[in-house]
Amino acid sequence: MKTWVLYAIISMIFAGVTSVIAKMGLVGISGELGLTVRTVLVFLFIMAFAVFTVPGTALGSLSQTNYLWLGLSAVTTSLSWIFYYKALKDGQVSTIALIDKGSILVAIVLACVILREQITPRVALGGLLVLAGLAVIAKK
Length: 140
Description:
Layout: H1 3-25, H2 31-53, H3 64-90, H4 93-101, H5 103-113, H6 121-138
Helix pairs in contact: 2-3, 4-6
């Protein structure tokens, strides 16, 4: 198995666990407060991680383009988290997590249009299955 596949699987597992424990952490508080506390703690954890893994000279290799795209990514991540926590506060984790993972459909289309990645039959079928899963779970 390629290393990036293993990393993606580990990410998937942690993302699933995150949704459940975040819902538990929102008991008695607002989604906004929960998101704020979580984000501060994530920042601290990532900074500690960077101290041990990012060489001190690495900051000099960042270009304006890196800052632009990573900055835009930070904005979209923030917006995603804000609305995820608003949904998580009142909704069911299983439904919210699936709808959130529907982002794969957005990613597939944008990867094709912007990054010129090819949509293979396997990717198209997987996307259609995700869409079908969204329809099944979202249907009341």
